[in-house]
């Protein structure tokens, strides 16, 4: 059976001390559900989730922690059965006009009890329950640290110059461009990178798109890490102290140390904690792919920071 990928969000807010979520009404089906839509060819699911939320609700969101996915049978355009797989994220509204499109005639903010009763599909309650549980655990308000392995670069063989100046190849440049909407969906505002050109060129398109300066760090380069491995840990700790949505771009030999440092912060008592630990361990053991982004969702900052969810997104482009 064919699979139709889709993605959406549960925008949430706190009003007069009560947790509320935004739901949409589709007049075509006369149903209440979450903002969602089909993934465009080559599009990463988080990009779909943020885009579809804006298109359906007029609300611009930044994604938070992932929520349970939904899978159910629908009919495709040819009238044949297909499996629709929808990935969801908790999300916070950061802007937008609130103007509705034709498919949606109403967006309503409801407290979680009223939302539970209003939903037309039992499968949509899985995401709501996960969001409520995360809130009860103090793990709903999160901020991201995104580890990025530099995109595909020209091979070392035949370069003949200082390796730190080795640039991306054409495929790597496409991977760098594909990172722009992905990092934007999480609201990244700070970009820290190895001083090596292949890392700089990987995240420079995103930094330019949001008008941010790159923070170049020799300690995240292969050469700097080889000279003093503690420097990469220092840069991670500084990021945790700042508590700002951050992308950190580095190299294959350096990333296991950063992944290990983040794994030490995993809160195994929260929903998603054990899965986060597994994903970080797997990424450290098998090596992240070139152009891959690993998103860690954290609560609190500094020494109190803890990881409550992790996602991996392979390179695109």
UniProtKB/TrEMBL annotation:
Keywords: Hydrolase
InterPro entries referenced in this protein's UniProt entry, alphabetically: His_Pase_superF_clade-1 (IPR013078), His_PPase_superfam (IPR029033), NUDIX_hydrolase-like_dom_sf (IPR015797), NUDIX_hydrolase_CS (IPR020084), NUDIX_hydrolase_dom (IPR000086), Nudix_hydrolase_domain (IPR051325)
Signal sequence region: none
Recorded GO MF terms: bis(5'-nucleosyl)-tetraphosphatase (asymmetrical) activity
One GO BP annotation of this record: ATP biosynthetic process
Coiled coil regions, renumbered to chain: none
SUPFAM superfamilies: Nudix, Phosphoglycerate mutase-like
Residue stretches making up the Nudix hydrolase domain: 2-132
Listed PANTHER family: BIS(5'-NUCLEOSYL)-TETRAPHOSPHATASE [ASYMMETRICAL], DIADENOSINE 5,5-P1,P4-TETRAPHOSPHATE PYROPHOSPHOHYDROLASE MUTT
Protein's name according to its UniProt entry: 8-oxo-dGTP diphosphatase
Organism from which the protein derives: Lapillicoccus jejuensis
Lineage: Bacteria, Bacillati, Actinomycetota, Actinomycetes, Micrococcales
């Amino acid at each position: 059976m064919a699979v139709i990928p889709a993605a959406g969000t549960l925008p949430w807010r706190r009003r007069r001390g009560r947790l509320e979520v935004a739901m949409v009404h589709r007049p075509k089906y006369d149903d209440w559900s979450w903002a969602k839509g089909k993934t465009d060819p080559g599009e990463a699911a988080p990009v779909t989730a943020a885009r579809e939320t804006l298109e359906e609700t007029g609300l611009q969101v930044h994604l938070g922690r992932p929520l349970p996915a939904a899978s159910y049978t629908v009919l495709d355009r040819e009238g044949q059965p297909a499996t629709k797989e929808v990935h969801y994220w908790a999300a916070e509204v950061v802007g937008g006009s609130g103007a509705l499109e034709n498919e949606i005639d109403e967006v309503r903010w409801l407290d979680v009890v009223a939302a539970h009763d209003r939903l037309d599909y039992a499968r949509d309650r899985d995401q709501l329950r996960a969001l409520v549980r995360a809130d009860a655990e103090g793990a709903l308000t999160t901020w991201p640290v995104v580890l990025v392995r530099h995109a595909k670069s020209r091979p070392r063989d035949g370069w003949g110059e200082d390796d730190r100046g080795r640039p991306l190849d054409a495929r790597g440049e496409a991977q760098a461009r594909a990172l722009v909407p992905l990092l934007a969906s999480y609201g990244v505002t700070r970009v820290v990178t190895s001083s090596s050109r292949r890392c700089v060129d990987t995240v420079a398109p995103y930094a330019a798109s949001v008008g941010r300066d790159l923070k170049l760090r020799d300690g995240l380069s292969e050469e700097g890490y080889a000279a003093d491995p503690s420097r990469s840990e220092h840069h991670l700790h500084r990021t945790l102290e700042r508590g700002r949505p951050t992308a950190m771009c580095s190299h294959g030999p350096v990333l296991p140390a950063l992944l290990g440092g983040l794994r030490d912060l995993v809160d195994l008592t929260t929903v998603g904690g054990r899965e986060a630990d597994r994903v970080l361990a797997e990424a450290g053991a098998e090596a992240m792919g070139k152009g891959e982004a690993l998103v860690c969702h954290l609560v609190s900052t500094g020494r109190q920071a803890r990881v409550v969810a992790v996602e991996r997104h392979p390179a695109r482009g």
